[in-house]
């Protein structure tokens, strides 16, 4: 029998550990060895499990279940060749043993051959007469194959036969979420709750689905039911706090985050949310306090440093904002949004070279948003490098060929570069594409907009369109 971690050791386990300490040799039944080995495997004590397997096989060399546990450890250690030799021997002795096929499937799975693993598990299923463990393993293989429909079907079978199999329940919901079928998840969870109305896990998951759909009142009710089922359910309080934030009930949200801290040790995420709430309540000192508590609790939480950055940026203290932005980048330098924010701070400080570098990093890391190209070209133009600013917009046009604002900006830059021919080409194209966005050109380049050159072109385009 398999023991759960931290379960009180049985007399067989105590006897075995006593034997190891005294170097005496005690005899155990094969079933006792199975219990001992499962205990060590479940508690992550692989070395002790291997010792028990070795001694167990010395005392019971023909015990198939002990050999299968030996295979399980070999597979865990990626020693596939030796594991397969043992499995070949066992299959000759007992070809109808489903565990042989399960272990072979594990080997194929670890080799990323999930299709072969599925076929072996299907064979194991016929031999095991519908073992739920096999359905669960099939579900995981289908997840590896990104076949969320079949994965969901197998996990649903597990939940149908064991409503307290919460791992499978989570996986069912995960499949619905990945397929963006929130309504399907809601219907499934409501059906589940008809049968298990006091399941806090299901209420919690239902609340999250309602939250995703923006159904905040329904989400709030679901989290309340989760708390009624288990008033120490930290996750439900935390999610309820997020809902209350969305509803603008910041003081109530803070109360729920505070409850999570009173039940368990404080978390950086709870501090961060509390800081956000206080900032929205204009409690600046409290907001700052909780942001600093966030990074004190978890110095590697880049979102904490980012929250402090945003706080100082909104206050116009760009030097401090830059200091904390750099801390976030040091933690996650591959995040293009961080480089983009860093560029904005440099631009506010009129450090255009640094802003140029930061925008370049953002784009190289995959940020191709429209405002990235527009703002990057702007800081380069501010640095009096008009040609480079134009080249940035030409590159951006590859991603946004139908965005007139790109063309209006290029018109102004070409005029600054004293190239009226190219400017006219871009201007005419922009006006024909979207004349309603002409205000972009008017606001950014008022002198060019009011010139006879621009007004004549605008007039001609309007006449041609009538």
Number of strands: 0
Largest sheet features = none
Can you write the helix and strand succession as a string?
A: HHHHHHHHHHHHHHHHHHHHHHHHHHHH
Residues in β-strands, percent = under 5%
Note the gap between the termini: 85 Å
| Average pLDDT taken over every residue | 92
Instruction: Kindly provide the radius of gyration, computed on alpha-carbon positions and rounded to a whole number of angstroms.
Output: 32 Å
**Percent of residues in helical segments?**
over 70%
Structure annotation, total helices: 28
Tell me the structural class.
mainly alpha
Query: Globular, elongated, flat, extended or rod-shaped: what is the shape?
Result: elongated
Low-confidence stretches: 1-7
Your description of this structure?
InterPro entries: TPR-like_helical_dom_sf (IPR011990), TPR_rpt (IPR019734). Keywords: TPR repeat. This protein is mainly alpha-helical and 466 residues long. It is built from 28 helices and no strands. Among the domains are: 95 residues; 65 residues. Helix 4 runs parallel beside helix 6, helix 18 packs antiparallel against helix 19 and helix 20 runs antiparallel to helix 21. The N terminus is likely disordered.
């Amino acid at each position: 029998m398999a023991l759960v971690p931290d379960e009180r050791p049985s007399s067989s386990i105590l006897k075995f550990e006593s034997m190891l300490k005294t170097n005496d040799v005690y005899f155990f039944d094969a079933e006792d060895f199975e219990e001992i080995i499962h205990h060590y495997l479940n508690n992550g004590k692989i070395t002790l499990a291997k010792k028990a397997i070795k001694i167990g096989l010395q005392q019971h060399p023909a015990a198939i279940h002990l050999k299968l546990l030996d295979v399980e450890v070999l597979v865990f250690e990626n020693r596939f060749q030796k594991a397969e030799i043992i499995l070949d021997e066992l299959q000759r002795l007992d070809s109808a043993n489903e565990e042989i096929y399960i272990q072979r499937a594990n080997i194929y799975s670890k080799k990323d051959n999930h299709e072969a693993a599925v076929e072996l598990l299907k064979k194991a299923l016929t031999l095991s007469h519908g073992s739920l463990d096999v359905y669960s393993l099939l579900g995981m293989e289908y997840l590896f194959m990104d076949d969320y429909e079949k994965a969901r079907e197998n996990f649903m079978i597990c939940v149908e036969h064991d409503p307290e199999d919460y791992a499978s329940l989570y996986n069912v919901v995960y499949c619905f979420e990945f397929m963006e079928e929130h309504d399907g998840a809601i219907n499934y969870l409501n059906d589940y709750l008809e049968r298990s109305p006091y399941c806090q896990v299901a209420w919690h998951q239902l609340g999250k689905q309602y939250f995703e759909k923006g159904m905040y009142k329904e989400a709030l009710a679901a989290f309340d039911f989760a708390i009624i089922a288990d008033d120490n359910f930290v996750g439900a309080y935390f999610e309820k706090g997020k809902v209350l934030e969305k509803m603008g009930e910041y003081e109530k949200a803070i109360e729920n985050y505070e409850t999570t801290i009173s039940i368990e040790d404080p978390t950086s995420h709870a501090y961060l949310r509390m800081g956000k709430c206080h900032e929205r309540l204009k409690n600046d000192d409290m907001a700052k306090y909780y942001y600093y508590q966030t990074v004190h609790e978890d110095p590697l939480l880049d979102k904490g440093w980012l929250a402090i950055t945003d706080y100082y940026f909104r206050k116009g203290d760009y030097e401090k904002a830059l200091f904390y932005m750099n801390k976030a980048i040091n933690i996650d330098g591959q995040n293009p949004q961080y480089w983009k924010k860093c560029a904005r701070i440099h631009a506010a400080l009129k450090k255009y070279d640094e802003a140029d570098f930061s925008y370049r990093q953002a784009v190289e890391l995959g940020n191709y948003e429209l405002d990235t190209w527009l703002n990057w070209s702007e800081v380069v133009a501010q640095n009096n490098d008009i040609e480079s600013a134009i080249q940035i917009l030409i590159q951006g046009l590859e991603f946004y060929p139908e965005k007139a604002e790109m063309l209006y900006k290029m018109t102004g830059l070409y005029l600054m570069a004293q190239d009226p021919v190219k400017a006219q080409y871009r201007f005419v194209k922009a006006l024909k594409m979207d004349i309603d966005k002409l205000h972009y050109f008017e606001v950014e380049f008022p002198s060019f907009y009011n010139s006879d050159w621009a007004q004549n072109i605008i007039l001609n385009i309007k006449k041609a369109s009538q």
